[in-house]
Write a structure and sequence with these properties.
This protein is α+β, with helices and mostly antiparallel strands. It folds into two domains: 142 residues, no CATH class; 115 residues, no CATH class. It has 13 helices and eight strands. It has a four-stranded antiparallel beta sheet with strand order 1-2-7-4, sandwiched between helices. Strands 3-8 form a two-stranded parallel ribbon. It starts with a helix and ends in a 5-residue tail after the last helix. The protein binds iron/sulfur cluster (2 copies). One iron/sulfur cluster binds next to helix 7 and helix 9.
Length: 300
């Protein structure tokens, strides 16, 4: 019933995993990643390690983590001459869309099971891709995205932690095998065969999460016409060769995204930025960061 309700709410995948602590190997790998400074400017990733490890600390009596995925692959793309926005930020802020759907599903679960729920959409320290793999939805690729077999990686992830005891799905055991296409395609050499991404080099992280006035000089050489995020390691992935466009109208590109030129960004006031991107994930960049990004490879 829960899975069919998830499908009718528009979710593309839904799986259940027992809410036991994250396994030792995954935790050790994460700790190493932080110790090596590979979280870059994502300082938040170093905090709340106890909560990140144990979902029962996020909801007392938790028995199940429900992992859910929502397709955002666009049907229309930005035209030539615009500065490139990663697909995830084309339309309405996914936090809003996902939160609405997760909340609706959580209410349904509470009604049918009489159990407690806690929906999470970037709102709690939880290992999203780990739980998606445990819940059988897909596997984590060397591009560090969750790959759903037959569907690809252009999916938002969300979770509902619940005290309901639901039958766990079989974890996904697939891997990337010998493929290394994303490692070759990454313009910033941020990926490696061992699967550990260096966020201090990742353009997506630098353009979105790093708000310093200046970025390292090498970024200008590789950033190209990207202004919000980077999709290169997903575009090249064979699992995305047959990606299907999302059915969620909210994720369609806004007029602003379809006409986002350097001139448009440079002439935008702070107030205009706030109004224009009030319901867009681009608002998280901040006004100054968007303007900085627009000048990175500008020769003007
Ligand atoms: S998002 Fe771009 S820069 Fe970051 S790892 Fe992928 S290809 Fe490299
Ligand atoms: S491009 Fe290849 S190595 Fe990279 S995530 Fe896709 S399948 Fe894995």
């Amino acid at each position: 019933m829960i899975k069919s309700q998830a499908a009718s709410l528009g979710f593309d995948a839904c799986g259940f995993a027992a809410a036991v602590p994250v396994d030792d190997e995954t935790t050790a790998r994460y700790d190493r990643w932080i110790e090596q400074g590979h979280n870059g400017c994502m300082q938040w990733a170093a905090g709340h390690r106890d909560l990140r490890r144990d979902p029962s600390l996020l909801l007392e009596g938790a028995n199940t983590v429900i992992s859910l995925a929502l397709n955002y692959y666009p049907a229309r793309f930005q035209p030539d001459g615009t500065l490139r926005v990663a697909y995830y930020a084309y339309g309405r802020d996914y936090h809003e869309v996902l939160r609405e759907k997760l909340t609706a599903l959580a209410h349904f679960i509470e009604q049918v099971t009489q159990c407690s729920t806690r929906p999470c959409v970037d709102s709690a320290p939880i290992r999203e891709r780990y739980w998606a793999q445990r819940a059988g939805i897909g596997f984590v690729g060397r591009n560090n995205c969750l790959i759903i077999p037959g569907k690809g990686s252009y999916f938002f992830l969300g979770e509902i932690i619940t005290t309901a005891q639901l039958p766990p799905d079989e974890p996904c055991r697939l891997t990337c095998g010998d493929c290394g296409k994303c490692i070759e395609a990454c313009p910033a050499s941020a990926l490696s065969m061992d699967g550990a991404a260096d966020a201090s080099r990742c353009l997506s992280c630098l353009l979105i999460e790093n708000h310093s006035e200046e970025l390292p000089a090498w970024v200008a050489d590789v950033v190209g016409d990207r202004v919000v995020g980077c999709d290169e390691c997903q575009l090249c992935c064979p699992h995305n060769a047959h990606a299907q466009a999302t059915r969620i109208a909210d994720f369609a590109p806004t007029d602003t995204v379809m006409t986002l030129t350097r001139g448009r960004i440079q002439s935008m006031t702070a107030g205009e930025f706030k109004r224009t991107f009030a319901h867009s994930a681009i608002s998280r960049l901040r006004y100054k960061t968007l303007r900085r990004n627009a000048t990175l490879n500008s020769t003007e």
